[in-house]
Fold this sequence. Notes:
The complex is a heterotrimer.
Chain A: E1 7-9, H1 14-24, E2 28-31, H2 37-42, E3 50-53, E4 63-65, E5 71-74, H3 79-84, H4 86-91, H5 93-100, H6 105-108, H7 113-119, H8 125-132, E6 136-141, E7 144-149, H9 150-153, E8 154-156, E9 159-160, E10 167-173, E11 181-188, E12 195-205, E13 211-219, E14 226-227, H10 231-235, H11 242-255, H12 266-287
Parallel strand pairs in A: 1-3, 2-3
Antiparallel strand pairs in A: 4-5, 5-10, 6-7, 6-10, 8-9, 11-12, 12-13, 13-14
Helix pairs in contact in A: 5-8, 11-12
Chain B: E1 10-16, E2 22-28, H1 30-34, E3 38-43, E4 75-76, E5 82-88, H2 91-98, E6 102-107, H3 114-118, E7 133-141, H4 144-150, E8 153-161, E9 173-179, E10 184-189, H5 194-205, E11 212-215, H6 232-243, E12 247-250, H7 253-259, E13 266-274, E14 280-290, H8 301-308, E15 318-326, H9 341-358, H10 363-370, E16 379-380, E17 385-386, H11 391-402, H12 404-416, E18 420-429, H13 437-442, E19 451-457, E20 463-467, H14 476-488, E21 495-499, H15 517-544, E22 551-554, E23 557-560, E24 563-569, H16 570-578, E25 593-598, E26 607-616, E27 623-633, H17 640-660, E28 691-695, H18 712-728, H19 743-755
Parallel strand pairs in B: 1-12, 10-11, 14-15, 20-21, 27-28
Antiparallel strand pairs in B: 1-5, 2-4, 2-6, 3-5, 7-15, 8-13, 9-10, 9-12, 13-14, 16-17, 18-26, 19-20, 19-25, 22-23, 23-24, 26-27
Chain C: E1 8-15, E2 18-25, H1 30-37, E3 56-59, E4 62-65, E5 78-80, H2 93-100, H3 110-123, H4 130-137, H5 148-163
Parallel strand pairs in C: 1-5
Antiparallel strand pairs in C: 1-2, 3-4, 3-5
Amino acid sequence: MKPAPFAYCDPTTVDEAVAVLADAGDEAKLLAGxxxxxxxxxxxxxxxxxxxxxxxIEQLSEIDAREIGGIRIGATVRxxxxxxxxxxxxxxxxxxxxxxxxxxxxIRTRGTVGGSVxxxxxxxxxxxxxxxxxxxxxxxxPTGPRMIPATEFYLGPFTTGVDPxxxxxxxxxxxxxxGAGWAFLEIARLHGAFALVGVAALIHAGADGTLEDAxxxxxxxxxxxxxxEGLDELVRGQRPSASLIEQVARxxxxxxxxxxxxxxxxxxRREVAGVLTARALHLAALRAGLxxxx
Amino acid sequence: MGDLTRPRxxxxxxxxxxxxHALVRGVDASRATAMSGVHAVLTGADLPAxxxxxxxxxLFHGQRETPYYALxxxxxxxxxxxxxxxxxxxxxxxxxxxxxxxxxWDPLPxxxxxxxxxxxxxxxxxxxxxxNVAATFxxxxxxxxxxxxxxxxxxxxxxxxxxxFACPLEGRGxxxxxxxxxxxxxxxxxxxxxxxxxxxxxxxxGLPEPRIRVIVPRVGGAFGSKFHFYPEEVAVPLASxxxxxxxxxxxxxxxxxxxxxxAREQIIEATMAARSDGTVTAVSGEILGDMGxxxxxxxxxxxxxxxxxxTNVYAIPNARVRTRAVVxxxxxxxxxxxxxxxxxxxVVERLIDQxxxxxxxxxxxxxxxxxxxPDRFPYKGLHHVFDNGEYEACxxxxxxxxxxxxxxxxxxxxxxxxxxxxxxxxxxVENTALGPSRLLNAGGVLSGGYDIGHVRMETNGEVTVFTGxxxxxxxxxxxxxxxxxxxxxxxxxxxTVVTGDTQTCPMTGYGTGxxxxxxxxxxxxxxxxxxxxxxxxxxxxxxxEAAAGDLxxxxxxxxxxxxxxxxxxxxxxxxxAYLRPADLPDGMDPGLEAIEVFDPPQMAWPYGxxxxxxxxxxxxxxxxxxxxxxxxxxxxxxxxxxVEGQIHGGIAQGIGMALYEELSYDEDAQPRxxxxxxxxxxxxxxxxxxxxxxxxTPSPIIPGGMKGVGEAGAIGSPAAVTAAIEDALRPFGATxxxxxxxxxxxxxxxxxxxxxxxxxLVPQAAR
Amino acid sequence: xxxxxxxxxxxxMLVNGDEVEAQVESRRLLADFLREDLExxxxxxxxxxxxxxxxxxxxxxxxxxxxxxxAVQCDGAEIQTVEGLGRDGVLAPLQEAFRExxxxxxxxxxxxxxxxxxxxxxxxxxVPEERELREALAGNLCRCTxxxxxxxxxxxxxxxxxxxxxxxEG
Lengths: 294, 767, 170
């Protein structure tokens, strides 16, 4: 299982990379962490004529965590770097919790946040988190930079708003209001294997202990990560309770249209999505300092 | 294998059929051959018209021929069948060239399962057959029909056991160097059967055996899957001959799912009859073995073994088995740890559990009632004679170690709390120390069951042991060294074991497998070491002018008992034997080595119990192990650490079979599994820490008393794990007859029970 | 920026402390470069898609799959393979622990486990608790041992390291 031949280049600036892409178009593939791309190359499932290695573009490997304002994570920041970063753990704990579930440490030492987002595997954890946290993707193309909100970014399995001539340069997370409750849970057949279903949950409560809103996104239940709409109507003004959580879980089960593959059927995914939703909301509530009534 | 290189070595890859069934109208490799760095492309068309088909080692009565060749000639019958070999400067270039080969395929209808293969009008794999049945087998004991008619309880089930494979972490590999000048072939191969391979190579290549040398280096795991003679082992030598250079092929992972023999897949419809007191009076089974596209090396041996082991450890007086080995358009089926015993064990243990349920009795008591008691040995089952066993003692020890009664008590509380905790057990007996040559030959095996041990003391008193058995991680070389060292009275560090080279190592009757290396290989080595020891004592007695009977050997020093200052060393004896024959007794030949044969008079029958305790997550179907206990009797243990290692590994594979692994195919006989993303090998977080204990009843028929333990862990574990899950799901009245037991399958069982109102557990609200 | 066509590129890296210079084809996997070009066969290939872990090495001190790295990416990097664990033919304490606990049977997965374990030991103070250790090792597959001797070996190595003066593992 050896890759087919390609021309290799390792630009040191974004502009150089974009110039190469302008030339090569969809004959090129971008190499970030390589943890998703290299297996495809080794299996000859993809055979680009040009491989553009982004790992020498220093600008892409920076985390810009501003005092006020959000956090901008360069596209080639390693997942492992993120999970070990104290600031990330404090300010984006949902993202860190999800990243910890990505495969295993030797994968995360190379795998990148941007790579996971741009690869858009329907089972991937990080894309679901970008939806829940309202992230914005920064993309640079031949016509210059542009921004794509996460809600418009994922178009289909392994398909995003990044065109062949574009480069994802950063994922930006807006500032998170304090006191949020969060949880990321997933089910996989083996530890570290691809998630069958994953749930990213974020809730906000007011000082009086009632919920202000809840956001949920799931991976593994469709061609793209799926954000569950309209949850704030369901939960606003209410105290967390088992029955409220069950209502949300039911809404999730009714909304999603999961697929069947060799690992699990649609029915199982639907059922487990509800179970994980309930467990994630429960955990998120506890983390927000709320009690969950029986 | 990947560590081996030879000067001027080239690299090979195989082009394999993407179709499950097709005619090969033509292969055009011209573009590939023209590429820079490509040295040759061979196809079936390059084989002479009379080129022999791949030979088999097992020829059962009545089995049909399923000829397949080193490279497919005009027809392919499974996805992955080798069609061409490409030889180039590197595997990278070889893979590039492979893509340039054009094949004119004429696809044929394919059959994807044994049941489809048996349907009227099903597409046939072999045109001269009336159907797709490669072989049938029948065995009867007593009168099953009467027993069924008179029974108080009759339980039946259809068991669907999945296709999976041994999946050693190192793939296969072959490095061939055909010396054109001398017309001699040296073949390095990851094989468990170098002597059989040499024999077969001679037959297929038309090269006399003395001009073939097969060498097995360290192998990265095998578990039976390398106990086969593969097409690649012929194609790679042909490539070497064609290019005049050494050629190496390494099986890559994607390839392994198609190219290495698969295992286990059977459909078994079985019935068990019992009296109301729990005595099992009969067992019957109809077995369909899905052999894949051809009978491979060991024929349908594993399916045959399932058939004859259908009484397991129980004194069931009436038994009947009707077996069909069916060909389908999938990778050929072959050997894997346990051979056919895990399947037989699964069926019998699950049916016994059902009998227990019907009689509302404890599953341990039903077993206890039916275990072959010590006074009934030697006991004849459907085919084999079981030698001895303290089954009940083993059962008791297993239940004690597992705290079985404690778990049953706690289970009531767990259930009251809505927790699904289950205890399952499985008692197994297995066939090891394969086996007496006459029995093997009578059964159609073209091998003996003997082993030859060659022990040589060197000029300096060190010892070399030569064995035809091969090291693949099981550590038997340690055991052989221990046996030789003990027998000769030297330190372990003085003994070297040489394995796996047909030029220097003696023939092994059967090969490395069937849990025979320590027992049969060990016995042969003991015998040879004993002969050497006698000569050593004779020489020493001459040198010390004492009677041989008065001498003792300790740590390489031969001294007169009671007079330790009068001694000679092994080095002294060695020197006399080889360098100063003048010091030898009159009439004694120089030299200090012996070659002895051990042919076991019978097979050995180790046995044991698995007790698994699991918890099932009611909402997700996930299974967690709370405990795993294993108590067994495998006779003398040469090295307890190694024995336990074998058990742990076998249990892990059994858990893989019970819960995770499957090589599924779609209706068009296309494989669905191509990487480790879909073929699930359990990790350190899925496999529990087993607690192992043992009894030791030395084998009465193997010198040294070893029985064999390589396969044991894999035999009873699938049934025990499944039983535990079924027990956990008892409130839902679930019966599990299909493997692997996935979380989805568990939720479906629960949902189905709730729909049909058979559930006795009140559904819990989501917590 | 010119894109170089399919050809050989120069690479320089430190491998087990030794400076290495070579010309490699862009698509050559680091694993093949180590095994074939440098003849460091300790790193094994069990799947070539990053799951089995047998090819795990340390890249700039962190574990990584050498089957998912191109040799050219490692220009300027520090690589440690299993050959770098011992010294002058003497096994590292971690390797000794593996031997004593019978933590290897066929040994094919072992180099990957050793590299992963060596990283765990160098980044985890004290003796890792079993569950946490199994999680850290879950990215390495073994088909022979059933894992628990491996877990025991690593815990034992950690214990011994605690008892002696702290030294860098490998």
